[in-house]
Amino acid sequence: MNSASPDPTDGTVSDVTPDLSAFRQTFRRHAAGVAIVTALRPDGSPVGFTATSLASLAAVPPLATFNMALSASSWPAIAETDRVVIHTLGVRNKAAAEKLAGDNARRFEGEHWYPGPYGLPVIKDTTAWMVGRIIERFTVHNSAVVVVQIERGELGAEDEPLLYHERRYHRPTALD
Fold first, then answer.
1. Which region, left, alpha or beta, applies to residue 52 given φ > 0 means left and ψ of -120 to 50 means alpha?
2. Consecutive H or E run containing 6
3. What is the value of pTM for the model shown?
4. Domains plus CATH for the chain?
């Protein structure tokens, strides 16, 4: 059957304007773990950002993903580099999360990081960090999904996970 307009039940309707405020509010209400991703620019200077999109993709081989906007100040470095460090954060790392989400020029001012494997910036005192090789970058509209194969890492001291919800940092509360 050849129809002049798409069937709204088949998922092909492209002229539907989504309720962007509902979309934004939905994801503000969705709590997410907080991570920091760091790398090196081609000139060797550190770059990094706070992310809430970190996810495990596979255990064998160990793969992780994160998403970022192509307009992000860190994107040019992530687009060009081979390796990144992914840090998971605990409640004690709130200041580091805020610093890496703040002014790009000041993200690596201070004593909160050190050069790690491959000279990559490692944030001090996180719950864990993993070095990985970027194996895929998928551009989707104005964003990218980055796939990283984990090569090595270290665990830090345990802590309650740092969560981001409703534009604020939180700690989890047990329900039992």
1. alpha
2. none
3. 0.86
4. 19-166 (2.30.110.10)
